[in-house]
Design a protein that fits this description.
Radius of gyration: 18 Å
Shape: globular
Strand content: 15-25%
Strand order of the largest sheet: 7-6-5-8-9-13-12
Number of helices: 8
CATH class of the largest domain: Alpha Beta
């Protein structure tokens, strides 16, 4: 798994994921864990990540810890599954793509710079949609890859309707109060050393919600993860630490 993640181009990983799930799923059936996205149960989950960390990836829908937490958040804290929304999903996650696309209440557009599954090829620093277009935007684990995350946040703010909201998860370096970025760090080895992954260009610190606010958003700071018991966190294989900052475009700040 570690070899695949590090050496196979992302578009090919995306294309192969469905077949891979079909092949490995029967070997992981059990009752110890449940993925809340696909609702399948397993004796263990697949390893994932640069270091091949064990018990992370759902063998059926390919969800990771952060995806399972976000699914539960959408289910328990929003009306996403029932309200009519115009949705932009940047870098759509495999575990969500088909499910969101099949939901009759959504007008659903996907976008990505390289994914073969996306409807629109785009750079989130220059989004090709008019102001005030979307009710909801998802842009998860993307902003750590782009040259200027603040420009990308402002672009997302621009295309959201007043009263609409976005979820823009990023890896957080919890021990740092400030986001670390250095444009002189350019090699894959140095980026992995300083930013945690070879294709990252920054490591966001605990100032991340303030960066979202600087783009104009009102940010919800609820610690949703810790509404679950330790037993539930283990059963659903949720993250050890993760915040879902729901970022709302104020009604009075429409972009003209």
């Amino acid at each position: 798994m570690r070899f695949l993640v590090r050496n196979v181009p992302r578009p090919w990983l995306i294309r192969m994921s469905g077949l891979f799930g079909v092949i490995v799923k029967p070997f992981y059936k059990g009752s110890r864990y449940q993925c809340p996205v696909c609702e399948n149960r397993f004796r263990k989950l697949l390893p994932y990540g640069n270091k091949g960390a064990d018990n992370r990836l759902c063998p059926s829908c390919m969800s990771l810890e952060r995806h399972r937490l976000l699914w539960l958040y959408l289910k328990n804290r929003t009306t996403f599954f029932t309200t009519r929304y115009n949705v932009l999903h940047v870098a759509p996650e495999q575990s969500f793509l088909k499910r969101f696309r099949a939901m009759p209440n959504l007008t659903y557009t996907t976008a990505d710079l390289v994914s073969p599954l996306a409807d629109v090829k785009m750079d989130i620093q220059d989004i090709p949609f008019p102001d005030n277009t979307f009710d909801v935007v998802f842009c998860n684990h993307v902003l750590e890859h782009v040259d200027d995350d603040k420009v990308a946040m402002k672009e997302i703010f621009r295309v959201i309707k007043p009263g609409g909201w976005a979820i823009m998860q990023v890896p957080i370096q919890w021990e740092n109060n400030y986001t670390f970025e250095d444009p002189s760090i350019t090699t894959e080895a140095d980026r992995e050393k300083f930013f945690g992954q070879y294709d990252h260009v920054r490591f966001h610190g605990t100032d991340y919600p303030d960066r979202l606010r600087s783009a104009g958003f009102e940010v919800d700071d609820e610690d949703f993860l810790n509404t679950f018991s330790e037993e539930e966190k283990t059963y659903y294989r949720l993250p050890q630490r993760e915040m879902i900052w729901r970022s709302v475009k104020p009604v009075e700040q429409a972009v003209s």
